[in-house]
Amino acid sequence: MNFVVALPTEAKPIVEAFGLKKYSQKTPFPMYKNDLHTLVISGVGKNRASSATGYLLGRNQSTCPVFLNFGIAGHGSLPLGSAFLATRIISDQESENYYPPQIISSRIRKSPLCSVSKPVTDYPEEIGYDMEAHAFFATACLGTTRELIQVFKVVSDNPNHSIAQIDGDQITQLIAGSLPDFQTICGQLQSMEKEINPKSEEIEFKTIGYSIHPFSQTQRHLLDRLFRHAHSLAIDQSIILAGLRSGKSAKEAIRNLEKILEPHRVIK
Amino acid sequence: MIDQIYFEEEIEDHPRTQEFFARFPKATLTPCLHYKEVFNPVGQNFRLQKQKPGLILAKQNGKRIQSIPESYGIGGKQNFYFSHLLNCLYDCRYCFLQGMYPSAHYVLFVNYEEFWDDIFEKTSQSSEIPTWFFSGYDCDSLAMESTTRFVEFFLPLFAKNRNAHLELRTKSVNIRTLKKYSPSPNIVTAFSFTPEEISEQLENGVPKVKSRIKAMLELARQGWLVGIRIDPVIDCIDFENRYAKLFNQLIKDLPLPSLHSVSLGSFRMPTSFFRRIEKLYPHEPLFAGKLTNKNNSTTYLPELEHNRLQVCKKLLLDLLPQEKLFLCEMNSSSP
After folding, report:
1. Does B113 touch chain A (CB under 8 A)?
2. Which among B38, B198, B287 has CB closest to A99?
3. Which of A129, B4, B214, B311 sits most deeply, having the most CB atoms within 10 A of its CB?
4. For residue B128, what are the contacts with CB-CB under 8 A and spacing of at least 6?
5. What is the pLDDT of residues A144-198, one digit of tens each?
6. How many angstroms separate the CA of residue A243 from the nearest CA in chain B?
7. Hey, which CATH number is domain B4-328, 3.30.420.10, 3.30.565.10, 3.80.30.30, 3.40.190.10?
8. Domain end (from A196, A222, A238)
9. CA distance A138 to A146
């Protein structure tokens, strides 16, 4: 799971809550990690947000990783400290709009969000204002499915409380106050990520299967399909491996596997 | 439960849009410029969205009435389909919609009046030939009636225009609206079935076969014409017994004059859709069946397909006259 945060003061409560450790090697952005989560501090603005997101995407091993942008935002109507998920992300400079699919079940507020190039002080509409979400989403959706890209913001300023009145400690407090919501979002996104990504046991099984014969790339594609079918048809892995091993060549091994599956290819 | 409504800014003031806003006061309302901004982008996961789809209210400005392939009809000379709604309440694993649309959100076109104008115009162009309109190609015609009020709007119009024939295709038992009206001979409610064992495995969220039969009988007894759709026919163990049992259940209590038609079609869909669905559900046993790619369509192996259809045909012809039976070939397995 990947977090993109603009400021160190926004990152602090998450780093503490998830027990993230500063990554010791040199990276273009400050980065914190544990086994499941990676957080980068992008800095303020669309270019930095886009670069940091791209950097994380490039490092990613998962087919469909989770990307969450988290931080403070101004808002035209919501009170200070309210947290919201972005439903529509527009930009003052780009024409494309993004609509993160609203698949998280929670009572968390929802709001449109406009990413601006300069801080907003007059809050012309009853929507959120930030400086990163649009660029973050535009980059993240190049590398994962849109359901797993979400933008979660905490209101730090509004028409009654100027951004100038907020200091770093207050930002940290605001973010810390919304950690329960943050964890709800993370929990649900993590389950969805698991649901659509291949399981590690399957990847391991494939590796074992590939090692039995010198399969060509085309044959590996064919094998992948047969492994998938074997799983669907609830055929024991030991039978599959025995079938592959009994073949004298890669071609014969595939033929054996096809023969094993054939009588099972009907739904119960 | 709808808790996210997107709406095209252009139709914000449309009375039907406003009615939706009033009926779903807790829903989050999000404007968009065009429904395709939300619905069409690449990189969406239908499977994840299906867990919590939103409703998109839009206006269909494009072609509202489409011709259907010749082999799809149920006896009419002129056949069209129209889609007031894209996507279905149910989640049937064999359904082509999962592979056709990038998104699982429901798109509801609120300009019903313009759909009707086009239907009326098509009918008027050839008033001597009955014209059929199929409404259940991209959605289930009745399942979301309490949300869409589609039947409520269209039924009285079709009832007054007897040359325009309507097929409502459904797996729903939501027949309340139909029951409020007197039967019309130009409106057929066609119920889709697979045997109970298959339905339980593949038709997620769909009412039980028994409940659907009960709803069908209720309509028939009230005098409505009903149709039976055995489409897609799914290969399974104990095939003949399961389908024989289903056909007997369907037909034994049904007054034959109320039965408009029975159609039969094997599992089939464009291969590009099939590949997408297979990626979404890689461990679905249905997709590990004896399938092949024939003319860019994924179907059962020809011999198996022929055998399964012939078995069904024979079983059905023991129960009903030949003229009521229609064979649908090489189309997509429908909702």
Report:
1. no
2. B38
3. A129
4. none
5. 999 999 999 999 999 999 999 899 999 999 999 999 999 999 999 999 999 999 8
6. 18
7. 3.80.30.30
8. A196
9. 10
